[in-house]
Amino acid sequence: MDKKTLLFLFTIFMFAGMCFAGSVPSIILIKSDNSSIEYALSTVRKIVFDEEDAENLSGMRVQFNNSNSDVTSVDTILFQTGTVEIPEIMGEKCNVYVYPNPVSEFLIIEGAAELSEIKICDLNGKVLKTKIVDGKTTKITVSDLSQGLYLMQIGKQVIKFRMK
In this structure, how many other beta carbons lie within 10 angstroms of the beta carbon of residue 74? Predict the structure, then answer.
């Protein structure tokens, strides 16, 4: 995503969070080791997608205001404006499996809730494919996508994958 898109998203989430009494908008980072960290959204300076680290699939990092340290190896970023409990989100994270990654022809999704919508987007946020989950296992043809990084959204979860 470019800087303008991320700034727009932060502005929307900040405004939406102000509409909830006593609620502070936050960002939940789920790292590659499945650990999670929650921060107030107002402390986030920017989210960076490092294309040069695409081979390791750990190219997302979050930079914070007034801090020299970044959070790296981020697999999933969740924005929270309401009162959703973190264990509910983590339960969803642990139940959805996407493979193979990197992929060349088909992505297999297991554990997504039936009738959930799956969206595949480029890093600019443009939706390239959509599919409705129709069973325990869903298969999506991605052989028509060019080589590079993509984001898949399933409910509140965003998963990064790479086309070889």
Answer: 20
| Closest C-alpha to 154, from 101, 126, 123, 114 | 114
- Between CA 30 and CA 38, with CA 32 as vertex, the angle to 5 degrees is 20
Backbone angles phi, psi at 113, to 5 degrees: -60, 135
Please say if the pLDDT value at position 129 is more than 90.
yes
Domains located in the chain, CATH noted: 3-84 (no CATH), 96-163 (2.60.40.10)
Using alpha carbons, select from 98, 106, 99, 108 the residue that is nearest to residue 141.
106
Judged against a pLDDT cut of 60, whether residue 123 lies above it is answered with yes
User: What are 82's two structure tokens?
Assistant: 């309401």
Confidence band, pLDDT 50/70/90 cuts, at residue 91:
very low
